[in-house]
Protein backbone atom coordinates (compact mmCIF):
# COMPACT_ATOMS: atom_id res chain seq x y z
CA UNK A 1 0.00 0.00 0.00
CA UNK A 2 1.14 3.51 -0.81
CA UNK A 3 0.58 6.71 1.11
CA UNK A 4 0.98 10.41 0.57
CA UNK A 5 2.41 12.40 3.45
CA UNK A 6 2.73 16.18 3.59
CA UNK A 7 3.58 18.67 6.33
CA UNK A 8 3.06 22.40 6.76
CA UNK A 9 3.54 24.97 9.51
CA UNK A 10 0.75 27.47 10.08
CA UNK A 11 1.25 30.58 12.18
CA UNK A 12 -2.13 30.24 13.88
CA UNK A 13 -3.47 28.36 16.90
CA UNK A 14 -4.54 24.73 16.50
CA UNK A 15 -8.12 25.71 17.42
CA UNK A 16 -8.35 27.81 14.25
CA UNK A 17 -6.75 25.14 12.04
CA UNK A 18 -9.02 22.43 13.46
CA UNK A 19 -12.07 24.63 12.81
CA UNK A 20 -10.93 25.16 9.21
CA UNK A 21 -10.66 21.38 8.71
CA UNK A 22 -14.03 20.54 10.25
CA UNK A 23 -16.47 23.23 9.11
CA UNK A 24 -18.17 24.22 5.87
CA UNK A 25 -16.76 27.71 6.23
CA UNK A 26 -13.17 26.52 6.51
CA UNK A 27 -13.23 23.69 3.96
CA UNK A 28 -15.21 25.94 1.63
CA UNK A 29 -12.29 28.36 1.65
CA UNK A 30 -9.53 25.80 1.12
CA UNK A 31 -11.04 22.88 -0.86
CA UNK A 32 -14.36 23.47 -2.63
CA UNK A 33 -17.31 25.77 -2.09
CA UNK A 34 -19.79 23.00 -3.01
CA UNK A 35 -19.88 20.86 0.11
CA UNK A 36 -21.87 19.46 3.01
CA UNK A 37 -19.79 19.14 6.18
CA UNK A 38 -20.59 18.54 9.83
CA UNK A 39 -18.01 17.99 12.60
CA UNK A 40 -19.57 14.76 13.88
CA UNK A 41 -18.12 11.23 14.00
CA UNK A 42 -19.97 9.03 11.52
CA UNK A 43 -21.19 11.96 9.42
CA UNK A 44 -20.48 11.67 5.70
CA UNK A 45 -18.97 14.88 4.37
CA UNK A 46 -19.73 15.55 0.69
CA UNK A 47 -17.47 17.50 -1.65
CA UNK A 48 -18.35 18.43 -5.25
CA UNK A 49 -15.40 19.22 -7.51
CA UNK A 50 -17.51 19.42 -10.71
CA UNK A 51 -16.21 16.05 -11.90
CA UNK A 52 -19.59 14.36 -12.35
CA UNK A 53 -19.59 12.63 -8.95
CA UNK A 54 -19.43 13.54 -5.26
CA UNK A 55 -16.44 12.77 -3.10
CA UNK A 56 -17.79 11.39 0.19
CA UNK A 57 -15.68 11.19 3.33
CA UNK A 58 -16.97 9.43 6.44
CA UNK A 59 -15.65 11.03 9.62
CA UNK A 60 -13.85 8.31 11.58
CA UNK A 61 -12.09 10.34 14.29
CA UNK A 62 -12.32 13.86 15.68
CA UNK A 63 -10.06 14.95 18.51
CA UNK A 64 -10.55 18.66 19.08
CA UNK A 65 -7.54 20.71 18.01
CA UNK A 66 -5.49 17.53 17.55
CA UNK A 67 -6.70 15.08 14.88
CA UNK A 68 -9.21 14.57 12.06
CA UNK A 69 -9.58 11.25 10.22
CA UNK A 70 -11.77 10.55 7.17
CA UNK A 71 -12.46 7.38 5.20
CA UNK A 72 -13.26 7.85 1.52
CA UNK A 73 -16.45 5.94 0.69
CA UNK A 74 -17.20 7.49 -2.75
CA UNK A 75 -15.03 9.35 -5.25
CA UNK A 76 -12.59 8.49 -7.99
CA UNK A 77 -12.09 4.71 -7.80
CA UNK A 78 -8.46 5.13 -6.67
CA UNK A 79 -9.64 7.10 -3.62
CA UNK A 80 -12.39 4.75 -2.47
CA UNK A 81 -11.18 2.83 0.59
CA UNK A 82 -8.34 5.23 1.33
CA UNK A 83 -8.05 7.21 4.54
CA UNK A 84 -7.04 10.80 5.13
CA UNK A 85 -5.76 12.09 8.44
CA UNK A 86 -4.73 15.50 9.68
CA UNK A 87 -2.56 15.51 12.81
CA UNK A 88 -2.18 18.88 14.52
CA UNK A 89 0.31 20.01 17.14
CA UNK A 90 0.85 23.54 18.38
CA UNK A 91 3.95 25.21 19.72
CA UNK A 92 4.50 28.95 20.16
CA UNK A 93 1.29 29.83 18.26
CA UNK A 94 2.40 27.79 15.23
CA UNK A 95 0.46 24.68 14.30
CA UNK A 96 2.18 21.80 12.56
CA UNK A 97 -0.19 19.95 10.23
CA UNK A 98 0.76 16.46 9.07
CA UNK A 99 -1.54 15.21 6.32
CA UNK A 100 -1.54 11.53 5.43
CA UNK A 101 -3.55 10.00 2.58
CA UNK A 102 -3.05 6.26 3.04
CA UNK A 103 -4.12 2.83 1.76
CA UNK A 104 -3.56 3.62 -1.90
CA UNK A 105 -3.43 0.37 -3.87
CA UNK A 106 -0.76 1.55 -6.33
CA UNK A 107 1.51 4.46 -7.12
CA UNK A 108 -0.11 5.77 -10.28
CA UNK A 109 0.01 9.05 -12.14
CA UNK A 110 -3.23 9.98 -10.39
CA UNK A 111 -1.56 9.26 -7.02
CA UNK A 112 1.31 11.58 -7.98
CA UNK A 113 -1.10 14.29 -9.12
CA UNK A 114 -3.04 14.00 -5.85
CA UNK A 115 0.19 14.36 -3.87
CA UNK A 116 0.77 17.70 -5.59
CA UNK A 117 -2.82 18.76 -4.93
CA UNK A 118 -2.59 17.88 -1.23
CA UNK A 119 0.45 20.17 -1.00
CA UNK A 120 -1.65 22.92 -2.60
CA UNK A 121 -4.47 22.16 -0.13
CA UNK A 122 -2.06 22.67 2.79
CA UNK A 123 -0.84 25.91 1.24
CA UNK A 124 -4.42 27.21 0.93
CA UNK A 125 -5.12 26.07 4.52
CA UNK A 126 -2.07 28.04 5.66
CA UNK A 127 -3.13 31.17 3.74
CA UNK A 128 -6.67 30.95 5.07
CA UNK A 129 -5.70 30.38 8.71
CA UNK A 130 -2.95 32.99 8.77
CA UNK A 131 -5.07 35.65 7.04
CA UNK A 132 -8.59 34.75 8.19
CA UNK A 133 -9.09 38.10 9.91
CA UNK A 134 -8.57 39.93 6.63
CA UNK A 135 -10.95 37.79 4.59
CA UNK A 136 -14.45 39.14 3.95
From TrEMBL:
A Pfam entry, by short name: AHSA1
Residue ranges constituting the Activator of Hsp90 ATPase homologue 1/2-like C-terminal domain according to the UniProt record: 11-129
Transmembrane residue ranges: none
Family, per entry: Belongs to the AHA1 family.
Designated name of the protein: ATPase
Organism field: Sphingobacterium gobiense
Amino acid sequence: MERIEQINYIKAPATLVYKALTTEEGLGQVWTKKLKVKPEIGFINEFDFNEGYLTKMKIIELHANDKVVWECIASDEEWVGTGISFDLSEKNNTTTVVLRHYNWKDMTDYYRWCSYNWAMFLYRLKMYCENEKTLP
